Amino acid sequence: MSMIVNAVFTTKVEPAYDDLPEVRYHFPKTYLNQVEAALDNWIVYYEPRRSTADLSSSGGRSAYFAVARVQSITQDAFQADHFYAHMVDYLEFSRPVPFNEGGHYYEAALRKADGSTNKGAFRRAVRNLRPHEFEAIFAAGFARIIGRDPLERSEPDRVPNSQPNFLLAADNPAPAFEHELPAVPARRIETKLVSRPFRDRAFASAVMTAYGDRCALTGLQIIDQGGRSEAEAAHVRSVAQDGPDSIRNGIAVSRTVHWMFDAGLLSIADDYTILIAKRIVPDILQDLPPLRAKLTVPARADLRPHPSYLRFHRENIFEG
C-alpha cells in the first residue's frame, strides 16, 4: 500500500516561467508543498485560456493535455524562491480534455455548490488531485487508445468517508494539500503509462491528429477504406536516444520518408526547411513523391517540432 498523490500543473503556450513540460516544470515556492506531495507520482498538465502571461491574451485550450511523472525537485540556482520539478515519462493525450465537459468538472474543487466555476481555486497553478479524479482525466484523455467513451465515469476509490464521484461541492472541497488522504494501492494506470505499446499508440494518435494524417514532408494524405493513413508518426529524437513521446518531438511522415529520416538521409532546419543528405543521388528522389521545400507544420506553434529535437537529429543522425 502506498500513498498516491497526483496533481495538476498549469503551463501556458508561452509560459512566464522556464517550463519545458517534457523535461521540467518551473514554479515559485508558493507551490512547493503541493509539488512535493506529487513527487514520484503522476501529474496532469493543464493549459489555461490565457496563452501567455499577458492578462489580455487568449487562445489557450482550457484543457488537460498531457501526463508526466515528477522524478525530482531542485532549487533554482539563479532565481530566489523558485524551484524545478524534473519530469519523466511525458505523454500527451490523444484528445485534450476540457476542465468542464458537458457540465462535469473533473476537479471537484473547481465547482461551486451552485454549479459555477470556483475561480479562486482555478487561479492556483498547482493543484493536488484525488486519485479517482486523476483516473477520470486519464480515461478521457486516452479514450481513443483504451476504447472507452470519453465521458464515461469511473467509480471513486473506496476509501473511508469517500463521497460519490465528482459530487464534491465548494462547501466540502478536495483539500488543497492531499497528505491526509488514506493510503490506496497503486493503480493499473501506471502499468499502461510505462508500457511501450500503449505509449506508441498514444504518441501516434496525438501526432497524426496534429498533422491531419498528412505526411509533413511530401504533403500527401492517403487514407484506405478502413480509415487508416499511409503516413505514420516518427520521433525526431528517438526513444532509444532519450527522446520524449511528445508531439513536439514528432512528425507525420510516409513510410519511405520515415525510413530515410531515421537513416539520416533527410533532416529539418530550425526554419523547417527540408535538408537532403549530399550522398543521395538525384535518381532516388525522382522515384519518390516530391519533397516540399519546407515541412508542413500544425497551425499551433506549440505543436510544431521543438528546435532542440531538430538540432539533435541534425547533429547526431543526419548525414548531410
From TrEMBL:
<keyword id="KW-0255">Endonuclease</keyword>
<dbReference type="InterPro" id="IPR003615">
    <property type="entry name" value="HNH_nuc"/>
</dbReference>
<feature type="domain" description="HNH nuclease">
    <location>
        <begin position="215"/>
        <end position="268"/>
    </location>
</feature>
<protein>
    <submittedName>
        <fullName>Restriction endonuclease</fullName>
    </submittedName>
</protein>
<keyword id="KW-0378">Hydrolase</keyword>
<dbReference type="Pfam" id="PF13391">
    <property type="entry name" value="HNH_2"/>
</dbReference>
<keyword id="KW-0540">Nuclease</keyword>
<dbReference type="GO" id="GO:0004519">
    <property type="term" value="F:endonuclease activity"/>
</dbReference>
